[in-house]
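hi! just following up on the protien thing from before. the input was this:
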Amino acid sequence: MKEELKTRKRKELALAVAAALALAFVFALALPRLKGEVVLPNPSDEAVPQEPVGRHPLTGEVIYKDVGFPQTYGVMVDDHVDAWPQAGLEKAFLVFEAPVEAGIPRFLAFFYEGQEVGKIGPVRSARPYFLDWNNELDALYAHVGGSDAALDLIASGGTFDLNEYGKSSFFWRAYNRYAPHNTYTSTARLRSFAGERRSVYETWTFKDPPVVAEPEVARFELSFYPPTYVVEWKFDPFLNRYRRFQAGGAHVTEDGEQVMADNVAVVVTDVVVLDSVGRRRIRTLGEGEAVVFLDGNQEKGTWKKETQSSRLRFYDGQGQEMVFNAGVTWVEVIPDASALSF
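and the predicted 3d structure came back as:
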């Protein structure tokens, strides 16, 4: 009788312990939810990786989620020697380089909603021809003042404009540089100004880069005046990209990253000096001679742009539109083919 009583008590104790352990396990699972914490799924329950849905409309990179047509931001970036090194330029997906007064180049660097670039600049003033390239991407145009001709064009409409004069809260001034080479912005500030707006634009056609065994053109040079601004692009066969050099050294930004491109398109067009200050008129519409560098090769052809809002396009010698490598593209604007050398 005593043995039966002991056996029954042992069973009851074992059942109580088991019940307590089960309750503790259930409570442990429920506790994160009670606290509002996120419970991560078991890796074994992960879904099969997504299939690509296409290419990004601006970079051509393969994407796994439809992004629509992201808002674009065009920023006037200084290339005066006193502005070196620039910030954020290496993160732009598209850059136009063209001369301003004294032949010194200036950049129109493009970014898009979804990029996080904490510092872009120095930001400089507007010029009329940059507006035509900006508006083909329906981009927010960020600048600090501008020439009278550029400001008149902006005032006439057609440009989604952000001028630091009057909208200074979307920019800031650095204290370790002298004006006018000390104004900066960021994609966060540009995004806060643009709000829910979405750009409307035409796209280019992109492809994946091939493996290059032997490049046809390993390097080429663009002669901007004065000589300090001579630009050299060198093809890196291991990356299938072009590294940018300026003033005899690597073009490196504040973050210590070298500026690189997957495609470099050279536009030859009419450039006319208008006055003693050195302001220029650059033809952006119509068509002209072009040379496109990608995959270590060169393709001579033509560029065409019909209207301010239509996309600048490049065509090969057979009249077929060029297909670019996915990634970053630089467009170099020069007044004469003799400014390009190999």
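Helices lie at 2-35, 128-135, 148-155, 187-194.
Residues 1-7, 21-40 have pLDDT under 50 and may be disordered.
cheers
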